[in-house]
Amino acid sequence: MVPPLHRQTARAVALVALAACSAPREAANIEPVAEGGAYQAQYRDIEVRREAMPILEAPRINAESCRPPIGGTREAAAADGGKAGWRADAALRGDVLSRGDLVDLMLPGDETFSGDYVISRDGTLKVPFLAPIPAQGRTTAQVGADLRRALVAGDYYDTAPETALLVQDYAPARVTVSGAVFEPQPVTIGGVPGDQVDTLRQAALGASTEGRNLSVALRNAGGVRPDADLSAVRLTRGGTTYTLDLRGAVDGTPFDDVMLITGDQVEVPSRLCFQDDLMKPSPVSPAGISLYMSNLTQPATGNAPSAIGETVRQVPYGTRYMQAVVDLNCVGGARASSADRSAALFSRNPMTDVSVVVERKVEVMRTRADRDDYDPYLLPGDALACYDSGVTNVTEVARVLGVVGALTLLR
Length: 411
Known about the structure:
By secondary structure, the chain is an alpha+beta fold.
């Protein structure tokens, strides 16, 4: 028989243990998350009264706050041949030179001017005995034409000679990316590590690269955010601003993935809303998501048995909350003891930089027909934490206190 004093002590310890493992208070948020006024309408509180409603409201709620695309609608762009979102000229089309590029100048039978040249830091091609020729942002054909005129003007040739100006190697380009991207910053694009150089390609005449394309710069800046206005991406070069329509990068239609040069400035405007149709892998979206996870629930007794890494888990862009919860090993197990789990999502509004915490009951999400309406898309840097069910908490108390403590609690 347990002495009265010991019984009281055990009961007190048990009550403290139960209080410690009870459900935490609901997280507070600065933004009106519960009403659907946060970055994603999918964050809002679950509406119990419309459980069987087949219509999904979140995309409509998200779209209500969108401002019209700066470049006009896709229908308007198609009607005028795609010019609604494109006001560039030939200066952006084709392969253009940037400082540091290696070119090969060939004049048949001429050893004075023929040779390899590097575009100088000032963006010019410097050939012996000739004035520097502007090359930055121009094609080899344009530079070659100026070169032939300079040879005639300098009395080195009576008539314009036959020349060939070929790119042997494209140098990396340093550009700035700002606006509705996840990591606005200067980025370096193009170039390959020395151990990845294709020697046969290097020995061939001419060169080509996809590494200096606009889409590469956007990916290197973290990818475009779901609020980005891809109808009017601004590219500033040499004091002139061009407007590019990149919506084709997301919907699988052609788009002008122009080559960038050092000094280019790229700005992605925002539509000030969350666009569900941008949450998919594309040439301009994040390559993936580094997701922070914490799982200390049953049936897994720790992070290592759950295959949860020490820091982050990589998931594809477009992954949703419930997919990550399954990946977190927070779903399934014994219905009597493990079903009533919940998982909290920690995110941040990329437009306002304000944090948000959303918690969902796993079984509620599993059983609702309109689960997609409350299943948020995950963003880079998000974190997830899985909480034990109430039965699991009591079981843990019994395990810690032992049979005597558990029986004492029940008396």
